[in-house]
Amino acid sequence: MNEFLPTLIALVILTFIVWRRIALFGKEEQALMWISFVAHEVAAAANILITRYVYVWGDMLTYHQFGVQAAEWLRSDFWGNAPGLVGLFFHRPDPVQIPLETFDGSTGAMQAAAAFAMLPCFDSLYAVCAVIAGLSFLSKILLYQVVREELFDVPRRPLLFVCTLLPSAVFWSSSLLKEPLAMIGLLFALYGWHQMLKRRKRARSFLLFALSSVLVIVIKGYIFPVFCLALGAWHLARTVLDRRGDVALKTGHVITAGIVVGVMVIGTGILLPRFATETITDQLAGMQTTGADVEGGSGYVLGQSAGTASGQAGLAPLGLLTALFRPLIFEVKSPIAMLSALEMSAFIVVAIMVLWRRGVLNSFSSLVRRPFLAFCALFVLIFGTCVGLGTTNMGTLARYRMPMLPFFATLLVSLLARPRSDVREPRVSSPIRAIRRAA
Prior knowledge:
Helices cover 74% and strands 0% of the residues. Helix 3 (59-76) crosses helix 5 (105-118) and helix 11 runs antiparallel to helix 12. The protein is globular and about 65 Å long. It has two domains: 1-90 and 102-215, no CATH class; 221-417, no CATH class. The protein is an all-alpha fold. The chain has 19 helices and no strands.
């Protein structure tokens, strides 16, 4: 009863919110969206059952255990105790007065998030995961809105599928873990950025972008620098297209982009020292060495590097391919891994089809001429490389790479699909381009 009633209430509220949200779309789109919503909620329950009865223990249950204890502590004196958990959430460096074992950094932030989540959900893990699954679904709907508008000539059904129904993205974004919260923040921030580009409700859009970015930073900080670089590529691609859609690259654009990228990389190293270039190199080398020393059924080792930037650069292509396409079928050693391998096999087939039909140069040209694809490509390239280099286990690889999969799948589907002939480009968002076209 303690689990059932809060979960039922959460599902009823989420169903109403989803019903109101997807009413904005066509009937065919709504059908797939309902399927996706149900799939997210089923995945939430499956995550709990697998963690409890297959793996016996896991990070999710650890967060739940802490959250229940901290929620009880909050109920005793909310206004007196909440500031300590807020400080924990924001990585406060000075000691936090909490009568429970806490951790630094993103793990502590996740502990605080779990504590606050348990309050309205009455300590129910099923209810919390149901809410996270619902928010994850809604964030993917926002992604689809962005993709549908930016890639207006690509058939909608495959775009909707890759945005909302990728099996591993559904499964790994529907539980009380870091990656789902980071994914939710990432997609909400992307939607806010897109609304700002379109000059729609700019104050509210900026607030959405800022708050969602904070969630990404405190939960999975290394995603945010990659996200910023990809947004820079998106904006640059928008500025180098002339009024006919042809590329008109100017020296000023290149210089500006270089300065912006440099500032973001340096600023990231100052604000988040753990993610500075030289620190990341050391961390990646350490994780690779650990992976080589630890034996495991699903472990893998890319190779031993000297702990230098050049050593990591040599492993980068292999790390990227690992994140994009592994595990392969012959690497599978468990039924759960088989599902991931089948999904990756589909990615391999589609990627080969893209290269066969379009070629490398033609595909690259499409990235420049379609700014959102430039964003997807750079995000996948950098994020995939870092995850592939820093992960040494196939099980965790499937979870860590989850935030990039919708972008990778969108990229592949867009390059493979035949453009729709029954649509025209929507109204341009840039006033300068609008004036040029009117002239």
